[in-house]
Structures are given as structure tokens and as C-alpha cells.
TrEMBL record:
Lineage: superkingdom: Bacteria
Cross-referenced InterPro entries: Ergot_Alk_Oxidoreductase, NAD(P)-bd_dom_sf, NmrA-like
A Pfam family annotated for this UniProt entry: NmrA
Protein name stated in the entry: Uncharacterized conserved protein YbjT, contains NAD(P)-binding and DUF2867 domains
């Protein structure tokens, strides 16, 4: 039976990907950083949970043993290219049939963001390795809305980007299902580069209005600096994210995240989640809990 390695298995794409693949009858090895409640939930679902660091070659090799296909995903931060080299080396040693690599929609060699440029470099690493690879160049996740849900509860829709900048947000579970379908047909998708977007393009101001409409509240768009944005999220000391968001502001002004593709719905064979569906699915995160009335 085919075994598929899922890195960042507790993340916004890894977690639903594990579910989809197990449902389709694949064996799944879930790579996580810590043995906690989330890891136990993966075990309970039937995944083989392994622990490790993508920047530790020994860990990566151990996680890759006996695997036929693998998902590579790396958070915004230092070490992406080094991690890609280790992952590609281990994949070559195991003669993998397919790697699915998570990249950026605006991936290019002369990107404003070093993180985005490193995604492009990582794409090249996987190509040089000779292991068949599908690169997913993905736009902003709808999960961005959850990052600011604490502000939305109090009527604030805050972003570090210009209100006119356009993009088509996609739900993490739709990315996960797209990857799962790719894993099921490696001979069809290996060597491809797919740009993934959601079904509807918005400006940031329009998206704020749509979220407000669904929640039934006034939610005017508010732009702050990237530094202030990270402080509001409680991660003001994360310099890697600060530099990335500053650079993505330029990408947005240049229209590099604008547009809609039909790639994801074509691969999964069904419509993608809308913003309305996403907000309703996570409605409790966006609304104040006043508690039960006293009796």
C-alpha cells in the first residue's frame, strides 16, 4: 500500500490532507514537531505519527523511510532552502514517486520578499533532484481571516495591505484536497506547476465588506503598517514575517496576487469554498460569546 508523508501535519493544509488521504485508503505518515494532543488526534485517525525537524537531515531521512510520496511545506522563516535540500536528498535516496511542494503564488527569482524568492529557489532544488515534483503556487489562505478574528469580534478589520490590492483567497481545506487528488495520480501531475486561487477575487476593502455582510456587522477596512499588524497579532518580534509582509505589500501593489485560476476546482472536481461558507463554518471565532443568560 502507498504511504504518503505529510509534513506540518497539524497545519491548515496538513491536517485536512491527512483526513482526505486516509479516507481514500492511503497510509499516512504525519510529521510533527511535538507529541501533544494534536499528535494524538492524528494517531486516533489512523496516521503513523513521527516527530522531527525539517532542518535535521537525520529526522527527515527517518520520516521518509518506506515512503512513496511526500508533501513539503515550510513556514515563513529562515531555513527554507536548506530544508528543501535535505528533503530532496532524502527523497532521492528513497526513490520517491512524487513530491508536492507548497510555494507562493508570486514565486519568482527576483521577488521583493526573500521568503518568496526562497520558495522559487526551493522549486529549483526539487527540479534538480530529479524526483517528480508538483509545485503548488498558492495565493493567500482564507485562514488569514482567522488570524484577525479577535479584532473582527470587536468590529475591526485590519490588514497591512492597501485597500485596493486584489486577490482571490482560498480555503486551506481546498488546497489540501487538491494536493490529495494530485497524490492519487502522480503520473498525471508530476512535473507540473499549478497556480491556486479561490473562486472570487476581492480587493481587501471588498473582502472586509463581504465578511461584515455575512456576520451582519459594520466592518470597515483599516490599514496599518506591517509592524503594527504583527504587534496586534502578538508576534511583533518576528522579523522574518515583518520583512515578508513589507515585501508582499509591494507585490500586491504590482498586482502579482490578482486574478483567478480554475486549477483547483478542475483537479478536485467540485466548487471551492466561498468566503461566506468559510465565515459561517468558523462563525464562533468571529463573534463575541456573551455566555448563557442567567436564570
Amino acid at each position: 500500500m502507498t504511504t504518503i508523508l505529510i509534513t506540518t501535519a497539524n497545519g491548515e493544509t496538513g491536517r485536512p490532507m491527512v483526513d482526505y488521504l486516509l479516507r481514500e485508503g492511503f497510509q499516512v505518515r504525519a510529521m510533527v514537531r511535538a507529541d501533544d494532543e494534536r499528535a494524538q488526534r492524528l494517531r486516533d485517525k489512523g496516521a503513523d505519527v513521527v516527530f522531527g525537524d525539517l532542518l535535521n537531515l537525520r529526522d527527515v531521512r527517518k520520516a521518509m523511510e518506506g515512503v512513496q510520496r511526500a508533501y513539503f511545506n515550510y513556514p515563513i522563516g529562515d531555513g527554507l532552502v536548506e530544508a528543501a535540500v535535505m528533503f530532496a536528498q532524502a527523497a532521492r535516496e528513497e526513490n520517491l514517486e512524487l513530491i508536492v511542494n507548497m510555494s507562493h503564488f508570486q514565486s519568482r527569482p527576483h521577488a521583493h520578499s526573500k521568503a518568496t524568492q526562497n520558495h522559487w529557489l526551493s522549486e529549483q532544488v526539487f527540479e534538480w533532484s530529479g524526483v517528480p515534483t508538483t509545485h503548488l503556487r498558492v495565493t493567500f489562505f482564507m485562514q488569514w481571516l482567522l488570524y484577525i478574528s479577535g479584532l473582527i469580534r470587536y468590529g475591526r478589520y485590519v490588514m497591512p495591505f492597501d485597500k485596493e490590492s486584489r486577490f482571490a483567497p482560498i480555503a486551506g481545506r481546498d488546497i489540501a484536497l487538491t494536493a490529495a487528488r494530485i497524490f492519487a495520480s502522480p503520473e498525471e501531475h508530476g512535473g507540473q506547476v499549478y497556480a491556486l486561487t479561490g473562486p472570487v477575487e476581492y480587493s481587501h476593502e471588498e473582502l472586509a465588506a463581504e465578511v461584515g455582510r455575512v456576520l451582519g456587522k459594520d466592518l470597515p477596512f483599516e490599514q496599518v503598517t506591517p509592524a503594527t499588524f504583527l504587534e496586534l497579532l502578538g508576534i511583533g518580534a518576528d522579523m522574518a514575517k515583518l520583512k515578508h509582509f513589507e515585501a508582499v505589500t509591494l507585490d500586491q501593489r504590482e498586482g502579482r496576487l490578482a486574478g483567478i485560476t480554475d486549477t483547483a476546482p478542475r483537479i478536485i472536481g467540485q466548487p471551492l469554498a466561498t468566503v461566506e461558507e468559510f465565515v459561517n463554518e468558523h462563525r464562533s471565532a468571529f463573534e463575541l460569546d456573551y455566555g448563557k443568560p442567567s436564570t
